[in-house]
Amino acid sequence: xxxxxxxxxxxxxxxxxxxxxxxxxxxxxxxxxxxxxxxxxxxxxxxxxxxxxxxxxxxxxxxxxxxxxxxxxxxxxxxxxxxxxxxxxxxxxxxxxxxxxxxxxxxxxxxxxxxxxxxxxxxxxxxxxxxxxxxxxxxxxxxxxxxxxxxxxxxxxxxxxxxxxxxxxxxxxxxxxxxxxxxxxxxxxxxxxxxxxxxxxxxxxxxxxxxxxxxxxxxxxxxxxxxxxxxxxxxxxxxxxxxxxxxxxxxxxxxxxxxxxxxxxxxxx
Length: 269
Ligand SMILES: [Zn+2]
Hints:
It is a single chain. By secondary structure, the protein is mainly beta. The chain folds into 2 domains: 77 residues, Immunoglobulin-like; 171 residues, Distorted Sandwich (Glucose Permease (Domain IIA)). It contains 4 helices and 21 strands. The strands form 4 sheets. Strands 10, 13, 14, 15, 16, 17, 18, 19, 20 and 21 form a 10-stranded antiparallel sheet that branches. It has a 5-stranded mixed sheet with strand order 2-8-7-4-5, with no helix packed on it. The chain has a 3-stranded antiparallel sheet with strand order 1-3-6, with no helix packed on it. A hairpin with a 2-residue loop joins strand 7 and strand 8. It is globular. The chain starts with a helix and ends in a 13-residue tail after the last helix. Zinc ion (ZN) binds next to loops.
């Protein structure tokens, strides 16, 4: 008699402890299984890869559930907290800190467009398996997670990595992907580009001066996409690079720090 339990065994390789702001890789066997993170379905790649983000304020534990027909496997992931800094920025034009109703409506429409782009994937295959590179040369002028105080008013935390540089400094794709959105004039983010790296991973590049790509273009890591600018809500020229995984904002500095994507032992911090 065959022991069918071996062929049908469910397995999930994932770090047991993750960190706020992290982009986490796991692998599930078989890849036909369904996976949910707290009740949200995750994309499962043909190689069994799952990717998810740990939110800035996530307290954990996170609950990953793998199901295949009648079988279920659940893992609980502890979340390590981080300390967040405070960044004070003064001298911003008033309309960017206390927008009037008309400007608020524009901000809302821009945000809806970005959200829609993230929920309508161009590709389900994870294209960034070679990892991520810094999308522009220059010093880091803003980090992920900082509590923002703009013109003395506490605002939402900062969900990206800021790289300062003169207007016209080249901006390149940090990893392979498809251009998912090009917008020449968003209220807060100015000239804006989004890339779909597959498997629910997106980059956004904002405050650009020039955009040299079109929606649908396929880019490799290092492909030019535009230049650093000072469009939208800025106190000086810089690139803001944001990364979301399955709708969760993660720390681009941690995405950059990763060197290994290929195997089940990837820690994914
Ligand atoms: Zn920023």
